[in-house]
Amino acid sequence: MAFAPRNRSARNDYDSPWKEALEQYFEPALALLMPELHAIIDWSHPPQFLDKEFQAVSHSLRRGRRQADKLAKVRTVFERPAWLLVHAEAQGGGAGPALAGLALRMQIYCYRIVDRHHIDHEPKRKPRPSGRGQARQDQCGAEGAPALWRRSSGRQAGVLHIAKGSLGFASFAILTNSCGGPPQLSHKLEFLGAAESLGSAEFQSGGMQFRCPVIHLGQWWPRWAELEARARSNPFAVIVMAQLQAHAHHRDGAGRLAAKIGLMKLLYRHEYGRDDIISLYRLVDWILILPPALEPAFEQALEAIEKEHNVAYVTSIERRAEKRGMELGKLMTLQQLMILKFGPLPSWAKARLEAADEAALSDWTDRILVAGSLEDILGAADQG
């Protein structure tokens, strides 16, 4: 399994590792973070991720690079499909404007998904004389219409009980940089209406109240020992641990290094298989970014860990190939620039290029614009 080279600046995007983690470890993510919702999904049917469908309903909403969304179609234990929206965001908790804005976005996502994809398994009916408004009210759960959503009486407010014979929809949010706050996102649209219910949206005389469960990831800090124990069989616990450490050591490179080494030791101690170790290494590496000066120390520690366990998963040819692939790309670019500027390269210049490391190639590339000769870039030619 080869590693895809990543640009370091791109790795600062919050979006990518969480999207990948949620898709790759969707079932263990729900088992850890939303156990009641996890319990009503039939995991013998793999989730179907609906990225194009989500793009269609979110195109006009302002979204940042520190947000990750996954829309999935799952099958429930009631033998009916359901749509599930998971939103992860690097945002603090509390009841400020940012949290209110997130609640509004989640409400808009919910409505657009239901409206665009007609989440209803009932046969089409002839329009009623009362017009379009009545037809929409029927679809959304007024008296006599099919029950699309039903509230669970469990602890997690907003987790939906999907009744047999219906197609359900559920959503929840993860705030990765929040240590506490309300257990639900809440947003109210003010208008006059009847006292009806729309699953997790309630019509009242003063408007429509939307509620959505929210997970404050920082609340796992006091349960760190539990996370370590859960990580024995739940790989998503490792992702949560990495994210907590990333926020805790935001500007502390040495702290990140120690945390990253600790997580890698945990993977080998819990005897994860090769594929999971490689996948989790990539995600942890993405979340816990180290300053370049500390990368060699991490690589040395990783080599020692793998030597202790008599394996070579990450430090095998795949990891070396990633690094060498980046070096070869720089070498070919620099060589082409030199040929264009100075003509065919002598053998000593080719040999020096091929023996160079990544740092030297970068330095020589910076010099080429002002250099008057190959010697100005590479140094004096070999004698003899």
UniProtKB/TrEMBL annotation:
Residues 120-145 are annotated as: Disordered. This is Transposase, YhgA-like. It comes from Pollutimonas bauzanensis.
